Amino acid sequence: MLNIHKKIKMFFIKILFINFLIYFYIILAKANEVSPTIVNPKEIGLSLEKLKNIDRKFNELIENNEIPGAVVAISRYGKVGYLKAFGMQDPVKKIEMSIDSIFRIYSMTKPIVSVGAMMLNENGKIYLDETLDKYIPEFSDMYVSKEIFESNISKESIIKANKKIKLHDLLRHTSGFTYGRFGDSYAKRRLRDSVLGKRPLPANMTSNDFVIELSKYPLADYPGESWEYGRSTDVLGRVIEIASNKSLESFLDENIFSLLNMRDTGFYVERKNWNRIAEPFKDKEPSLINITKRPLFFKGGHGLVSTVPDYINFCHMMLNKGKFKGNQFLSKKTVEYMTTNHLHNNIKRSTSRIPGDGYGFGLGFAVRENDGVSVWPGTKGDYYWLGYGGTYFWIDPIEELVAISMTQSVTKRDKINRLMRSLVYQAINE
Q1: What is the pLDDT of residues 327-338, one digit of tens each?
Q2: Ramachandran region of residue 45, left (φ > 0), alpha (ψ -120 to 50) or beta?
Q3: Distances (CA, A) of 362 to 140, 169, 206, 336, 394
Q4: What is the DSSP string of 105-128?
Q5: Residues 332-361: pLDDT tens digits?
Q6: Is the model's pTM score more than 0.70?
């Protein structure tokens, strides 16, 4: 009888041990998904000594109270050789920055949504030469706001658009939509003074409400004739919803985030992860969007949150011509098409500071046209984008390089972006 009890006891102990092992390996696997494997920098042609300059410079920024903290990553050949967290994630609560801290990435949403649109294009769900009004009829009759002079006095002239907005225009920002910022014009003032010029947008606004409201305002220029940074990708997000018959949130979750192990990327942060949200200096920076509540309007132009490990997976997919761990997100030719300049010589370039000298624009990314011209180090064909809140990335296909920095500082973002270019390229020694 005792032997039977002993055997039963041993059986349950074995079961408990097996369950523990299973649980341990699940946790380990999840941890590996979040934290990419770090290789010796020398293995990917990065100088250990030169990488110390990145440490020194970011620690200096923190010591000088220019930024609360940051996360920086560099990879080559699809391997991460540098991934570090600096300073404070939350300067008020005194929470240290970690590599999986969650950031508001603002306009770094745009490249992801653009990839989503091109996935639909590959599947024949949308075509780039289709006009926007096929999906949203309110955009069928658009007008353009032009400045004219009468007796040297500036006046606004509202003129019927000479052509319709195409989906191609949304992807390359030649739709005529504007933000109302980055310079001044009658069209920008109109939008700036409207409900769409408010920060944040009304909490009860849906994506459909948004596009209908936007359709009421004149364009900043004729479609297809000038590059103007604006609401194009927000409208593109609504097109994705209509073409896929899914919310933008669901579409991106199912087709991109889940397959790229972008487990912390989405349109809000769940309560269990609020302790991982990176925050700015409250007294030195503009207020940033609230990301603790699920929004009604999933903003394709600036609504996502993410982490450096998540976003580097997205970048690796792009660098690898649309592939990631056995999944083919886009074809090689589509990636090449997206990361080629789409602004021919007849398209006027905005006078705003982006995409910058030496850069044209592809489909969701600024694209370097020449090795010279730009004041930033780089290589012809590299492509990048940035976020209002202080996030930045670029991909250099020639060097097989990905670099990402994330902080939450509006006021210091330009300085950091310039620094990143210099600091990363100086560390390459082969």
Answers
A1: 999 999 999 999
A2: left
A3: 25, 11, 28, 10, 14
A4: -GGGHHHHHHHHHHHHHHTTS--T
A5: 999 999 999 999 989 988 766 678 889 999
A6: yes
